[in-house]
């Protein structure tokens, strides 16, 4: 029996709300009480996940500032703030589109961190899968 890192299960479980928000409308479910419309739920959940990812970058910057290719606190904060402003200032489609850009941008940061040895190849592979599932879901919601 192989022991899998906990982050693998957390990453995959973290994609389930995105997938549910994208696929439940195909079964005729447009909203869930008390949360509301599923496209809105997905956008709010995406903000939470992006906040979490930027928090990981902050922790990495604090843990190993000499090994990071640039100031992660500033870079990840710029990405998150852009997404947040799109969420509060624009319509839902723009908010989802901003998230569709932010997830791959933060993944690109993780690719650079893996290049410095701060992240394992397995973590990066799982991060890629989770990002692909989240982006697929957000894009599916956006075009439907």
Characterize the structure shown.
A two-stranded antiparallel sheet has the order 1-2. The protein has helices at 6-23, 38-63, 72-89, 92-115, 121-143; strands at 31-32, 36-37. The chain has one domain. The mean pLDDT is 94. Helix 1 (6-23) runs parallel beside helix 5 (121-143) and helix 4 (92-115) runs antiparallel to helix 5. Helix content is 76%, strand content 3%. The protein has 144 residues and is an all-alpha fold.
Secondary structure elements and pairings:
Layout (H helix, E strand, L loop, with lengths): L5 H18 L7 E2 L3 E2 H26 L8 H18 L2 H24 L5 H23 L1
Antiparallel strand pairs: 1-2
Helix pairs in contact: 1-2, 1-5, 2-3, 2-4, 2-5, 3-4, 4-5
User: Count of helical segments?
Assistant: 5
What Rg is obtained from the alpha carbons, in whole angstroms?
Answer: 16 Å
For the largest beta-sheet, the strand count, sense and barrel status come to:
2 strands, antiparallel
Which structural class should the secondary elements be placed in?
mainly alpha
Strand order of the largest sheet: 1-2
- Beta-strand proportion: under 5%
Count the E strands. 2
| Terminal CA distance | 42 Å
- Low-pLDDT sequence parts: none
What is the element string, with H for helices and E for strands? Answer: HEEHHHH
Give average pLDDT, whole number: 94
CA-based shape: globular
How many domain units?
A: 1
User: Level of helix content?
Assistant: over 70%
């Amino acid at each position: 029996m192989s022991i899998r890192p906990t982050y693998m299960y957390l990453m995959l479980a973290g994609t389930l709300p995105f997938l549910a928000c994208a696929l439940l409308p195909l079964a005729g479910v447009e909203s869930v009480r008390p949360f509301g419309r599923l496209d809105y739920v997905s956008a709010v959940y995406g903000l939470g996940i992006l906040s979490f990812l930027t928090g990981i970058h902050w922790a990495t910057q604090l843990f190993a500032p000499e090994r990071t290719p640039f100031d992660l606190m500033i870079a990840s904060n710029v990405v998150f703030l852009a997404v947040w402003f799109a969420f509060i200032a624009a319509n839902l489609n723009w908010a989802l589109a901003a998230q569709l850009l932010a997830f791959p941008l933060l993944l690109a940061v993780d690719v650079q961190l893996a290049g410095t040895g701060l992240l394992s190849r397995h973590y990066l592979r799982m991060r890629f899968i989770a990002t692909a599932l989240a982006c697929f879901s957000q894009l599916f919601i956006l075009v439907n």
